[in-house]
């Protein structure tokens, strides 16, 4: 559906521009925007390679494992059924650890695996379990200790201090995760 909406907006804009005599302006904007898009993409590619390398070092040095060891006891308190299953907890911990370190591309396969494991534990096949809903909320509002994508984007567009969003990001994502967990637990009691 969203593809149709974007196609309509783009088509309507081009047709309106041609009928109002601004076809040349549209062509100039298209060419200049594609040029700036390519430059931004190349800048982001280099920065993302750097962050992926830093995160790989963190993984190899055992930093992500230490974070996982810290998370496991906390998550065992939060999840009801999944806390009893080592496979499900392992996938959940790896997903959240990767997200916390800003490795969303590495977190996605762990998130899919965690959801499959939670589905395996689900007694009601027709709907999501409480643990599945809680995992989605925590995953969506995951605490970001190192928001590499935001830092990369800010650096690519020439920010003077691309890392200044780290502390506000930790506060915002931490608050969102905390409230998400609290509201999930409240809703679990009534639904």
TrEMBL record:
The keyword Ribosomal protein does not apply. The chain crosses the membrane at residues 6-24, 36-58, 88-112, 133-153, 165-187. The keyword Nucleus does not apply. It holds the Pfam family Gate. InterPro entries: Gate_dom (IPR011642). It comes from the Bacteria. Residues 42-154 form the Nucleoside transporter/FeoB GTPase Gate domain. Keywords: Membrane, Transmembrane, Transmembrane helix. This is Nucleoside recognition domain protein. It comes from Clostridium carboxidivorans P7.
């Amino acid at each position: 559906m969203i593809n149709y909406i974007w196609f309509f907006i783009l088509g309507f804009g081009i047709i309106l521009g041609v009928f109002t005599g601004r076809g040349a302006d549209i062509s100039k904007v298209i060419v200049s925007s594609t040029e700036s898009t390519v430059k931004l993409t190349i800048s982001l590619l280099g920065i993302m390679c750097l962050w992926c390398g830093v995160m790989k070092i963190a993984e190899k040095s055992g930093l992500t494992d230490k974070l996982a060891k810290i998370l496991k006891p906390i998550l065992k308190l939060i999840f009801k059924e999944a806390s009893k299953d080592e496979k499900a907890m392992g996938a959940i911990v790896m997903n959240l650890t990767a997200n916390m370190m800003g490795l969303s591309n590495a977190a996605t396969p762990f998130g899919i695996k965690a959801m499959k494991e939670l589905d395996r534990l689900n007694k009601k096949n027709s709907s999501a379990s409480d643990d599945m809903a809680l995992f989605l909320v925590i995953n969506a509002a995951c605490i970001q200790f190192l928001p590499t994508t935001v830092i990369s984007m800010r650096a690519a567009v020439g920010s003077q201090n691309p890392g200044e969003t780290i502390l506000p990001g930790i506060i915002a994502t931490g608050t969102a995760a905390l409230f998400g967990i609290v509201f999930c637990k409240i809703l679990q009691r009534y639904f």
